[in-house]
Amino acid sequence: MASIFVAIWAAVLTFVAGVLGLYLQKLLPDQHSVEKSRDMIGSVMGLVTLLLALVLGTIVGSAYFFSSTQQSELQTLAVRDLLLDKALGQYGPETKPARDKMKESLTQVYNLFWGGGASDVDPKLLTVAAGMDALKPMGDYLASLDPKTPEQKAAVATAQSNFGVIEQTRLLMSLQLAVPFSKPLLFVVVAWAAILFFGFGMLSRITATTLAAMALGAFAVASAIFLILELSEPYSGLFRISPAALEQTIATMDR
User: Fold this and answer.
1) Predicted confidence band at 116 (pLDDT cuts at 50, 70, 90)?
2) Average pLDDT, stretch 43-67?
3) Residue span of the structural domain in which 102 resides
4) I want to staple 152 with a disulfide (CB 3.0 to 4.6 A). Which of 129, 147, 172, 204 is the partner?
């Protein structure tokens, strides 16, 4: 996964920055020694620490909210699919082929994203164009229905209403997936982390304990970056959203 390599690079960059700070303090001439600038360096490090904590925490929260939103929208699709299937069933037995096709399509979606090979899913399948192409047959079918009785007219109206929500939600999900978070902002966060570790190195001495602490800190930063990237891939990442709503929908349809 690409997110692992990005997280590793972030860990390496922050750790190396800390080691450079450790060695640079030894090379500074006496008039520029750390002891004479400790207060200023400490103040700057406090500012960078605050900025990093605020921004990194905000991005992690935004990534989690993005994943939760996709989960909620998947549940909305599941509910509307059930209601659409119910409305078509109320229209009459002639809609059985369309209902079977809809259930087959949902099963294919489930197998594609939660069947074990989600990491190999083509990103183009999540685009707006792919969503519109997938929804067009059902839209054309609903438009072709010719209700005769009041019950059929009510069923068609209900089906079209639910399909409209399905269409809107599906396209909204694709548009959200296009830009899950600001990548330039993530680069800024990594740069701040490197500056922070460099400052820590300037204020510390080279010992095994110091290096171990820096390694743990670099791991913490990298794990946060990894969490952001994985939460931004709700259909292929490590923290994929739950397919429970879709499973129940498939099991309940056409009953």
Assistant:
1) low
2) 90
3) 2-28+37-252
4) 147
248 Cβ partners below 8 Å, 6+ apart? Answer: 78
| CB 201, CB 20: distance < 8 Å | yes
Q: How many domains does the chain have?
A: 1
pTM of the model: 0.82
Distance (Å, rounded) from C-alpha 155 to C-alpha 161?
10
Residue 206, CA atoms < 13 Å, CB-side half-sphere? 8
Q: Which residues contact 219 (CB under 8 A, 6 or more apart)?
A: 11
Output the pLDDT for position 221: 92
Angstrom distance (rounded) from CA 65 to CA 170: 18
Report which of 81, 96, 87, 90 is spatially closest to residue 158, judged by C-alpha positions. Answer: 87
Distance CA 203, CA 166 (A): 57
Distance between CA atoms of 47 and 175, rounded to whole angstroms?
A: 36
pLDDT of the residue at 3: 84
> Which tokens go with 170?
């599906």
DSSP code at position 72: H
Candidates 63, 81, 92; CA nearest to 135 is: 81
